[in-house]
Design a protein that fits this description.
single chain; alpha+beta; 2 domains; two-stranded antiparallel sheet; two-stranded antiparallel ribbon; Metallothionein
């Protein structure tokens, strides 16, 4: 049986996540999120979606990025704007 690296549970249905050259073992998605998701540098929430990145800084949304002084990031473009 494998052991979850977040909670220590031994579980016969544990799974591995291969990311950036490392292998991580978890017993559930909640532990995988807790163990791997970046943390928004403004509000402290776990970034489980795409989030936004400015340099080496991660944020859950453009609002939090702007609150920390990042310019130019938006959550959506205006209707009719081309990408």
């Amino acid at each position: 049986m494998a052991v979850c690296e977040t909670c220590g549970n031994e579980y016969d249905m544990a799974f591995e996540v291969h990311a950036q050259g490392a292998v991580h073992t978890f017993d559930c998605f909640q532990c995988a999120i807790e163990g791997m998701a970046p943390i928004c540098e403004h509000c402290g929430t776990k970034v489980i979606g795409h989030g936004v990145q400015s340099g080496e800084h991660w944020f859950c949304c453009a609002h939090c990025a702007r609150a920390e002084g990042t310019e130019g990031l938006v959550d959506r473009v205006k209707a009719g704007a081309s990408a």
